[in-house]
Design goal:
It contains two helices and seven strands. It has 94 residues and is mainly β. The strands form two sheets. The chain has a five-stranded antiparallel sheet. A two-stranded antiparallel sheet has the order 2-3. A hairpin with a 2-residue loop joins strand 2 and strand 3. The longest helix is centred in the last third of the chain and has 4 residues. The radius of gyration is 13 Å and the shape is globular. The termini are far apart.
Length: 94
């Protein structure tokens, strides 16, 4: 775990707000990901937030270096329940 609190809740869906890459992961605008866990890379001085794309079981990681502001999570992700298209989402029904 990181030295700072996680902005994400385990098991909750998040919508990607814009296309971006982080480490080896590519995030696509509009995709819905489930937040799985956080770990800390001491070597890289970074918190790593791990998500999973339900349909494919694909794992994606958002890396946040210690020098970066935690609030930037809001530039990249949105809690899915507040997204405009949340009603009727198969992901939310489970």
């Amino acid at each position: 775990m990181s030295w700072r609190p996680s902005p994400f809740i385990v098991g909750q869906p998040y919508r990607v707000k814009k296309h971006f890459t982080s480490g080896n992961s590519t995030f696509i605008e509009g995709e819905i990901l489930l937040y799985k866990q956080e770990y800390y890379s001491h070597y890289d001085s970074s918190a790593v937030y791990q998500f999973q794309k339900k349909e494919l079981g694909e794992s994606k990681e958002w890396w946040l270096h210690d020098n970066e502001n935690l609030e930037t999570w809001n530039d990249h992700f949105e809690w899915h329940q507040i997204a405009a298209h949340a009603k009727g989402c198969d992901l939310c029904k489970e």
